[in-house]
Every structure is written in C-alpha cells, then in structure tokens.
Specification:
The chain is mainly alpha-helical. Helices cover 52% and strands 0% of the residues. The chain has one domain. The chain is elongated and about 50 Å long.
Length: 100
C-alpha cells in the first residue's frame, strides 16, 4: 500500500466510513430500481424478470421457495439475495453511525 492510500485510510473515521457505505448502498439501490423501470418502460418484461433483477425461489424474500420474485438488491456472493426490506435495514443501521 502506498503512503498516500495509507494516510487517507488512517484519516477515515467510523462516521465517514458509515456515510461512504450508506451512499454506496443508496446508489446501488437506485441503480437496480432504475434498471428495472427501464426494462418495463421499454416493454422488455422478460429482462425485468431476469435473475439480475429478481430473486427467484423466494416466497418470503428469503431465497427459500419459488412462489414470489422480489427485486434482488444483493451485491455480493456472501449475500446474493437481499430484499428491499433487507437493504433498508442495512441502510438504517449505517445511518445510526453517521453524525448529523
């Protein structure tokens, strides 16, 4: 790691990190929603229901079953399936660490 990167990292506070993570999650959520809206606006409903937007096998939004298809806000292999409620909970938890 170069010294400039280390200096920047060492100046990061928990509040700054939480804000950065919150902003990144917000951008991700909006990106997923805009992409789904774009598919629907262009009458590409097959694409709007594809695995990249929807979380298959999830009657309760928990990846366990196959009777509903909530929008998937997952962003990593560790959590490949996140519902809107899951992502809002993560954003809320981060917001508690951000000083207003």
């Amino acid at each position: 790691m170069d010294l400039k990167s280390l200096e920047s990292l060492m100046q990061t506070s928990p509040e700054t990190l939480a804000q950065t993570q919150f902003d990144a999650l917000k951008e991700h959520v909006l990106s997923v929603l805009y992409a789904a809206i774009d598919k629907i606006n262009k009458d590409k409903l097959v694409g709007a229901n594809s695995a990249s937007f929807m979380c298959y096998h999830s009657p309760a939004g928990d990846c366990m079953g196959d009777t509903s298809n909530p929008i998937n806000f997952g962003y990593s292999d560790d959590e490949p399936c996140l519902s809107f409620g899951d992502i809002v909970d993560k954003m809320h938890a981060l917001s508690l660490s951000i000083k207003k």
